[in-house]
Amino acid sequence: MSDVNAERAAGPAAPDPRRWKALSVALTAGFMTLLDVSIVNVALPSIREALGASDAALQWIVSGYALSFGLVLVASGRLGDARGRRTMFVAGVAVFTLASLTGGLAPAAGWLVAARLAQGVGGGMINPQVSGLIQQLFSGAERGRAFGRLGTTIGISTAVGPVLGGVILAAMGPEHGWRWVFLVNLPVGLLTIVLARCYIDPVRDPEPAHDLDPWGALLLGVGVVGVLWPLVSEEWAPVDAAVLAAGVVGLAAFLWWERRQERRGRVPMVRPSLFARQGFAAGALLGMVYFSGFTGLFFVLTLYLQSGLGYSPLQAGLTITPFALGSAVTAAVGGRLVSRMGRWVVVVGLVVVAVGLVATALVFAADPGDVIGWWLVGPLLVAGLGSGFVVSPNVTLTLEHVPVAQAGTAGGVLNTGQRLGTAAGVALVGALYFRGVAAGDATTAAVHGLVTTVALVTAALVVAVVDVVQRGRTD
């Protein structure tokens, strides 16, 4: 009997009466970690001036977070499945909060990069537990609603980050305001730890220590770092090619080892059969490709508006607000529609996102000058409305056939793909933008970056359409 069928045969367990409060606590921490993906963007010019940070350091401050985030996701999800999701969740929040304090007090760019790497570790420990808790606490239509709230959290946290960052910088001043971008996490993190111990049940599924698959964790770590490292490097160098090759070998060795573990009757970190479950492989790939365009968009917009047009951090953040509003409106709706429309919700959302991004690129190409913020309201609102139909429905469909016992691991795999996409998108779009700026044409550089995001969203659309076709053939 399969894992999913075994769960169904066992019958539905009584729902935890605290499940919605537990979800709110989990989403608060998830919001905090995802907010730090984009809130830093508006602070980059201030960080450059205050700490004398180079372009390479700025890219590391953004992409290094994604690197360490992605490094620990799968292992953290596996530990949460085996040792208790609340334990891993609280530990992750503690690491993230301490790293935020270190970042806020950083005396030099190197210290801030190190703090961002540590923040990424904490974020990577937290996020698989969030999706795992949703799988554990909710079922049926309620699960779609819960993932809808997660989608709203993802959309709002990533898009509202520049606004909140701008408000903090405006209130605290550009010289020290960037420090409060990190320090604001302290009270949120401490309160989250307290509430987690009140509302999240410390459920665990004890397993023998040897079944935690430390060799699998090591091989996966080598693979993820090897692939991500060249993406977050400012310039391609021969050593990057060697690191990338080592990463590919590490991932291949990881897949071989996991199959070997399963054949020997042991519990691998990631069951190879997970990728054979309907929709999982396609959903993970779609999330990776979409996030490469999704986060690359904010990187180029916030830099261009401030460095190219002289917008204040708050003005730059407010310019992107329509995307956040649109995503917030449709994310919850998408979580409800996905049970009836399936992958078509994602297809429609990606088409709408692509239309909004094409319109955004055309506005930049028209170069309306300082009033560009007003011209961007409509296109970014359209893109945000589409994004709400992409993120949470894709998570729901990707994890739909995953048994609860593997929920944390599966969430870790899904999030790893998203972090790989984030790093790749920022690296690609950032490289195009900085190259154009160096050539003396920031507007054309921004257009090239935006066109690249359109191409990435279109690639995600192709993945979604292929999955719709394959699902139709198997129904």
Question: Strands, helices and their partners?
Answer:
Blueprint lengths: L2 H7 L9 H20 L5 H8 L3 H29 L1 H20 L4 H29 L2 H33 L4 H7 L1 H15 L14 H19 L5 H26 L16 H29 L4 H29 L2 H23 L5 H4 L1 H12 L2 H9 L7 H32 L3 H33 L1
Helix pairs in contact: 2-6, 2-7, 2-9, 4-5, 4-6, 4-10, 4-18, 5-6, 5-8, 5-9, 6-7, 6-18, 7-8, 7-13, 7-17, 10-11, 10-18, 12-13, 12-17, 12-18, 12-19, 13-16, 13-17, 14-16, 14-19, 18-19
Tag the structure with descriptive keywords:
single chain; 475 residues; mainly alpha; Growth Hormone, Chain: A; 19 helices; globular
Distance between the termini: 21 Å
What is the H-and-E element order? HHHHHHHHHHHHHHHHHHH
User: Regarding CATH, which class?
Assistant: Mainly Alpha
Q: In the CATH classification, which architecture applies?
A: Up-down Bundle
State the shape.
Answer: globular
Q: Write down the overall mean pLDDT.
A: 81
- Low-pLDDT stretches are 4-12, 206-210
Number of strands: 0
Give me the Rg, rounded: 21 Å
Class from secondary-structure proportions: mainly alpha
- Fold-level CATH name: Growth Hormone, Chain: A
CATH superfamily: MFS general substrate transporter like domains
Helix content, binned percent: over 70%
What is the makeup of the main sheet?
A: none
User: How many domain modules?
Assistant: 1
Individual helix count = 19
